[in-house]
User: What shape does this take?
Amino acid sequence: MADQGPFLTSCIIFYLSIGAAIFQIIEEPNWQSAKSKYVLEKKNILDRYTCLTKEDLDNILEIVSEAAGQGVTISGKMHTSAWDWSNSVIFAATIVTTIGYGNVAPKTVKGRVFCILYGLCGIPLCLVWISELGSFFGDRAKRLSQVLIGKGVTVKKVQFICTALFLLWGLLVHLVIPPFVFMSLENWSYLEGLYFSCITLTTVGFGDYVAGVNPNITYPALYKVCVQVWICMGLAWLSLFFSWNVHMVVEAHKVLKKRRLRHKSV
Amino acid sequence: MADQGPFLTSCIIFYLSIGAAIFQIIEEPNWQSAKSKYVLEKKNILDRYTCLTKEDLDNILEIVSEAAGQGVTISGKMHTSAWDWSNSVIFAATIVTTIGYGNVAPKTVKGRVFCILYGLCGIPLCLVWISELGSFFGDRAKRLSQVLIGKGVTVKKVQFICTALFLLWGLLVHLVIPPFVFMSLENWSYLEGLYFSCITLTTVGFGDYVAGVNPNITYPALYKVCVQVWICMGLAWLSLFFSWNVHMVVEAHKVLKKRRLRHKSV
Ligand SMILES: [K+]
Ligand SMILES: [K+]
Assistant: This one.
């Protein structure tokens, strides 16, 4: 720790600073123009409807803002409840997987207290389950490699095949194919689908895109279940991948350190 | 896996079903009343401002909804940018820690692509850093126990003291004290502060409460930095705690399994 701690800390600080600058450069103009457009449109509304004063409009917006804060969809029709059982299952799943989209969130005191307790028990349970699922897939890969070795394939080739299959599976099932499904069922663009997949499977979960909750779309039966299963399989895949990835980073760092030490001693 | 996999899977399914039912019971009435209130208020607005037809109001709400979708605050004044550098740092930090509040999220194609790449590199880096930080705190605890043992305290007492200090630190610094700080600086109730702490430190991050981003509050200097440091320390504490907790669950399960086997063989 005395060696790699400060190095890692400065890495993180540097990474955050640079990332923030890039995000600011990319996103601020878009936000500024959206804001200006909104200010202009508010002015247009006041010009068009002369019975509305500026205070009246502010009051209306306050009402809308409060409703939005309570999780009510502010425009369009709303036939389905935000808290029916199937949506509640999705919500509970977002807690225990720590994705936490936040498109629905408890607003009552009771709900919040239960949410805290639910997470405290559910998150470790889900962690254990996901890692079990990951090691289940790992076992399948091991069995495949044993079968291949039994058929006389060299160990190096088997390792290559297993790694390639593992990466290909992840790439196809969790990145390349799902956006096409979302394109046809959620009316998102390919990039939006890809963004949703990445943000979900890394458990970041911004909640700007959530699959299966658009009240204006009638989904096929079992679609919501499939999405949940897909998320869990993705997390299991990632738990295998990340443990391997983090392991590689640590190993690479050790190699670098050894080289540095050897360099010094020479 | 052949033994505990199906058991864990049924546990998760049961846990989600029950949790969803409880959330539905608690939250649906509140959502229903908020929805009815909103419908009523929309009707009141139409009654009060006779120059507005239903279509006009729907158009206005569409405009408001679109602006909200672009991350513009729809009511109140907005002096500060959602994407200034300090907010961008907070945003970048929510990606790499996988908290992902989603109160700000990239809206441009470029921003989304960068966000995906940024997370892919940043999340493993942050994971390694957090676990390093955790083991740093673990080392301090070990050193403390060595000092205590050197002073002639028995090993059992030292273990008890270290565990108690560890739990007390977590309880005070990450659960009991922060809500008081948020009460005074963010105007939240104690429960809201506690809810924010729990939702943040479990990295669920719904984003309904985010510290340091209210545009109507002038925060003390360094407050945002303190919040970020507090979050990182909390995650490090939890990485220690959860590794210990998950370990305990697995151990308890093994003990149960052994007992069951012994029971069967008797
Ligand atoms: K999250
Ligand atoms: K989130």
